[in-house]
Amino acid sequence: MPPKAKVTIKDVALKAGCGIATASRVLNNSGPTSAEVRERVNRAALDLGFSFSAIGRALQSSKSMTVGCLVPSLANPVFAEAVQGVQNELVGTNYQLLISSSNYDDKADDAAISTLVSKEVDGLIVTMVAPERSPALKLAHQRGIPASLMFHDPIKGFATSYVDNFEAARDVAQRFSECGHRRTGFLALRLATSDRSRNRYAGFHAECRARGMPDPALIELSETDANRPEKLAAILAAHPDLTAIFASNDFLAIAVQKAARLLGWIVPRDLSVVGFDGIEIGKLLDVPLATIETMPEKMGRQAAKSLLTAMQGGVLEQLPPLPFRFRAGATLAAPRAKSRDDGRVAAQPPSVPLIKTILKQG
Amino acid sequence: MPPKAKVTIKDVALKAGCGIATASRVLNNSGPTSAEVRERVNRAALDLGFSFSAIGRALQSSKSMTVGCLVPSLANPVFAEAVQGVQNELVGTNYQLLISSSNYDDKADDAAISTLVSKEVDGLIVTMVAPERSPALKLAHQRGIPASLMFHDPIKGFATSYVDNFEAARDVAQRFSECGHRRTGFLALRLATSDRSRNRYAGFHAECRARGMPDPALIELSETDANRPEKLAAILAAHPDLTAIFASNDFLAIAVQKAARLLGWIVPRDLSVVGFDGIEIGKLLDVPLATIETMPEKMGRQAAKSLLTAMQGGVLEQLPPLPFRFRAGATLAAPRAKSRDDGRVAAQPPSVPLIKTILKQG
DNA sequence: TTGTATGCGTTATCAA
DNA sequence: TTGATAACGCATACAA
């Protein structure tokens, strides 16, 4: 015989032969109870396989014990790790994670926040296209729902867990400069929907200027082209003067290496590349990737930690940004002394069909 | 002046000067309402910034409009993508995703399911260490909560979205055999907590036998060693007879390439490697990775799709496994004709300190 | 067409 | 020490 679909505290009280208030007191260890009724209630609960309904509780206590989390996409390992960090920090508390993703869509962001709010989350942890322009987020804030941001630069009213993208990018420019690079490029994916990329570009640009280098070439890649090394190769070929590329994430940086190979260029001899994020695989590559190491998991943890204190009535305080670290790699070296045109192609000439493809696409 | 922390339908009714039932009818388009009261209610709702409380609704309708999802870890991109697939399929429905992860822990798995059930999720999508041995999952099933599994082989009572790991692994063995490999190894991470790895090993082992090859060497790597190429190199060095390695995921396969490089071995000349999963980066490598391509996102989508029909009263039906596909790559080739001892090391002799390190650790 | 009253599962108040 | 009852926000049966 299958157990009842729903067994409530009422059933327990009935079976134990007591009032529901008593049953509640026993099961919650709240308030005085006699040993004998305790025995009966516990055994009834066990027999019936009772467990509290979080919904009933939420309604009565007006605490859902739920944290809402919004990220652009879990397909991006950086966000996935951050969410895992949040989750790791939430383990042991009684909070559950309600997740949403927007696929980098502004409207979807706002709708997602609204939904989370209507689910009465006790707190929010979000990364969105434009948190400062989200009516739903503002509403949540007015409603007194504590929120902490991930990956964004600090905004008043919210605590933010982030890495200083501007500074990190300046660091890269500095490394390039110290190696003797002058003409550089910045490669990114979704400049319009990622303040992270924009900040990296800004920092990179600023430091290039500060060092008297020419402004970096800004190269924005479409989502689909990111998976087409030939396309990227064509783009690189169109920028023959660049000696170093700063890619806004490690995946792009690896794609640049591939594209360079297609062109017969050797990294770092013919082109230096530095990535961002510091994914583990970068270390395992034939030519280990130079990159900025960040700590997405810690970022999630920190966001969750601040939020937890805020939800317990504490104040949401802004912590300093998480550290980043330049990871040295074999993809960064001094540019060739002479003009790049001579000798480079000779190293490993690209096949004729490839060149045709490039010309057709470029 | 900040808006009320909570504005309920009662507030709306009051402001609109009508009963709450009427307000409910207007806001839900359920039941007859006069144009005039509709106007008043809508305007009141707008003014007050009213939105329904999902909790009140859930309590009344006994539908939480929430799907519980449990995976071992979001730090594994395969699971993260699958969850994103679930999410993608849920967009447009009114279901929200309640997420949990267990970090590959049996007990945590069970606890997580219990929590999700007490949150009264309307359905479950899970990947766990041992679904067939989870009391909480069984209880959920008895309670009539539809559940669909991801990544596991089918279990009675649940619909499963999966790829046939056994068959895929047989495919790899076949490729090895056709290339002329005989002594092979299977490299995996968490054999005890991953039926996926176990199934891959089983299929690989079975096909090796069927083809008269020696049984593959089973190499299990600890979590930490996976990030230590020197350690892996030492292990490989201890298996000098192997000519091909089947790694249970692409990350490990790439680590094998790194380890081989440390030993001065050239892939695929001295060692062939095939991975599993088919991550995008594999294509971009200097030596593109041969691997089994799978579709985690589709897996999540399929799991969500079945669950949705089940939650709408349909029956949870078992679909055939998702397809896999062998992706050719430059890491697989015929083994060297002669005994591997001669010539191999000469190609690129490992440094003396490295050899010392290996001997120390090995 | 509208409003009142009830119940969903829980906790808290208060009287017994 | 116990139990009846109100309240949480909502939808609905039913009465008006």
What does this entry look like structurally?
Two copies of one chain form a homodimer. The radius of gyration of chain A is 27 Å and the shape is elongated. Chain A folds into three domains: 44 residues, no CATH class; 127 residues, 3-Layer(aba) Sandwich (Rossmann fold); 159 residues, 3-Layer(aba) Sandwich (Rossmann fold), CATH 3.40.50.2300. The C terminus of chain A is likely disordered. The N and C termini of chain A lie far apart (70 Å). In chain A, the strands form two sheets. Chain A has a six-stranded mixed beta sheet, with helices on both faces. The first copy, chain A, has a five-stranded parallel beta sheet with strand order 2-1-3-4-5, sandwiched between helices. By secondary structure, the first copy, chain A, is of the alpha/beta class. In chain A, 44% of the residues lie in helices and 14% in strands. Chain A contains 15 helices and eleven strands. Chains A and B meet through helix 4, helix 5, strand 2, helix 6 and helix 11 of A and helix 4, helix 5, strand 2, helix 6 and helix 11 of B. Strand 2 of chain A pairs antiparallel with strand 2 of chain B. Chain A binds a DNA duplex (16 and 16 nucleotides) through helix 1, helix 2 and helix 4.
Attribute tags:
15 helices; homodimer; disordered C terminus; DNA-binding; six-stranded mixed sheet; five-stranded parallel sheet; Rossmann fold; elongated; alpha/beta; 362 residues; 3 domains
